[in-house]
Amino acid sequence: MSKNQDLLVIGHTALDYIIKVEKFPVANTAATIENMKNFHGGAAANVAMVGGTLGLKTSLVSAVGANFLDSDYHMKMKELNINTDSMIVVEDEETPTAFVMTDKNHDQVFYFYWGAGKNFEHSNPPKKAIEKTQAVHLATGSPEFNYNSSIIGKKEDKIVSFDPGQDLHMYSSEKLEKVINNCTILFGNHHEIKRILKSLATDINGLKGLGPKIVVKTCGKDGSIVYSPDKKIKVDSIYRPAIDPTGAGDSYRAGFLYSYLNGNSLEKCAKFASSVSSFIVEKEGCQTNIPSYEEVKDRMNNFYNK
Known about the structure:
By secondary structure, the chain is α/β, with parallel strands linked by helices. The chain has a single domain (5-11, 43-86, 117-304), classed as UDP-N-acetylmuramoyl-L-alanine:D-glutamate ligase (3-Layer(aba) Sandwich), CATH 3.40.1190.20. Helix content is 34%, strand content 24%. The protein has helices spanning 43-54, 72-79, 127-131, 143-155, 173-181, 190-200, 204-209, 248-261, 266-280, 293-304; strands at 5-10, 14-21, 33-41, 58-61, 63-65, 88-90, 97-102, 108-113, 133-138, 159-162, 185-189, 214-218, 224-227, 232-235. The strands form three sheets. An eight-stranded mixed beta sheet has the order 4-1-9-10-11-12-13-14. Strands 3-2-7-8 form a four-stranded mixed beta sheet. Helix 2 (72-79) links the parallel strand 5 (63-65) and strand 6 (88-90). Helix 1 (43-54) crosses helix 8. The longest helix has 15 residues, at 266-280.
């Protein structure tokens, strides 16, 4: 592994089945699938792929099936120079698979098959990879693996960002607080931040007091809010007709971290992140419309500098 990585992403690499329905069925009923496609995904891999495309020297640690190594997905990671040397490869298991259902209102329901991801629980955190990077992003994955990785990240004085995402329900209040204690930046959408505050019986100020210097709350079409140590920063979203919202949050995190690691203000980080995510929603799949740095910069300047 290179001695100087910008960003190490830890969590799921997955195959995504993006399914569109008119409305979600209730129990004991059926719904017709209007469209279904298979894409590359997984929250950690999404962040790594976007980060790599933007220009970050990126590493990725996921638990995958043995057939992943010969896949087109792995080949695309290699084309972006994403370092996968510390991947957890599990024989006789499938790479994690997500089934993402979106209705006509763009609400979503997720089903996730962990497959090889179950081996996170029996694996040691990637200490050497953490030592050789500037920042560690903990995405969806094993709470225990993320916690153990956060301990090393904090001990090594790394920037540690944390986004439990749809795996938030897997964290006990105690485990959630322990990971948050070790992180620099906490990411969540408005639903997740609300659940975190309820789980920990606190408010935003109390949450910041637990460890993170920065709390970033994304609010879909309503933009995002960054809570810094001394102020609250509200940034509008960039409206684009949404073909598929899947992966927009992951791309926002990658964009924010790219800008943050390049020394920009928190407001500019949020604007850059919003610009990145605006591209992702324009096409189906998390990684089918990843923009270049120049494309993001142009859209950000055109929208926010009106």
